[in-house]
Structure of Nucleic acid-binding protein:
Amino acid sequence: MITIRVSRSVYRLQKCGKSRYPCLSLLPHLRPMSSEAIAKLPSPLKDLVAASVSEASVDSEAKPGVDEWIEKVASGQFGKAESLKDLNAQLTPRTYVVDNVMTSADVAVYGALHPTISQWQPAQYYSHPALTRYFDHIQNRPAVRTSAEKLSPAYSLVSFDLDSAPAQERKAEPPKKKEKKPVTEAVKEKVSEVKDAVKQKVAAVSEKATSKKEKKEKADKKPAAAVNEEGGKKKGESPPKQAAAEDAGEPQPSMIDLRVGKIVEISKHPDADSLYVEKIDFGEETGPRTVVSGLVKYIPIEEMRDRYLVGVCNLKPASMRGVKSFAMVLCATSKDGKEGGIELVKPPENSKIGDKVYFEGPDYENATPLSQLNPKKKIFETIQPSFTTLDTREAAWVNPLTKSVHRIRTKDGVCAAPTFVGASLS
């Protein structure tokens, strides 16, 4: 697990992009939103936000953004079709409206949207895919769902028929035409002279090259078969097509490289009291990887030694207080938050170092993960919110669109948390 800690200045660096893969569930010093902003909301929405605030928390530096969104809700800005279109565009690259964690602003936006979206027909939520995905994700968060069911039937669970959704057509924007600046007559004349000189030079070089080629062909002709054997292109043969980018298309869980590893060495970070520095063997010829994880406050060092675990192995390496981390330890955080505890996700019995960990389902089991996740495409950040543990404590990814469950497993069995049910994985 890659985490970031400790001071407010380090957290600023994380938000600026210098720590690309923090374990969001471990960010320190989080506190509830201001009651002043929530008080502006009408009932029963105000009660829903207040009841869900234990899970929807945000650092004080992100508070202005949360206040701004809650004030938008309080002013009734989300009732018109044009505002929904704008909100859909804003949510297309994001999971939440503020920062990378759910805040009180998300609960407020969900409650404000509920009267409208609950009346939508399929054509309407098909035309707002990002907004539909966001609304469904927030309404299924445990704190929001529990509070909604206790407080008011006005926030009943909304179901979406996504199996019949049409494929999204993505069109590239046409290139912008550059405006030509006026050219003086003198410049035009000079350009014309240069072009004529270049044409004459090219013609002379071409004529010379053609003459040499003809002489060489007469002196030494090779059969076509010989040319082909030496790697020459066959007559009429099309040039090879350029391979598509391996991370093209929508983020998929199978793009994440999960493997079984074993901690072979562990110590506390020399410059951070909350961080461990581990050497984890993933069965690679290059030897164990150095991994930094923020588990000092949650798992004693004695319980970490010689542990088998599941690691995320294709994140971009990140420097953590001067130590570079080359993987992330997959952990389960209690549904009550980090105060409820954090556990290492356990691979099945008889697992071997380096075993592949994959997602059940024909679309994912035989897929090859990416060699490295592109931080700009936020593949892990998009997939991670749907990681959870089932009633059986088994680790799984729940497809946010189809609600299908895909357990996380090796060839020998399913990975699981030791005790947590309904936990988030990161």
Q: What stands out?
A: The chain has 13 helices and 15 strands. Confidence is low (pLDDT under 50) at residues 1-33, 224-235. The first strand starts at residue 258 and ends at 268. The domain at 253-425 is CATH 2.40.50.140 (OB fold (Dihydrolipoamide Acetyltransferase, E2P)).
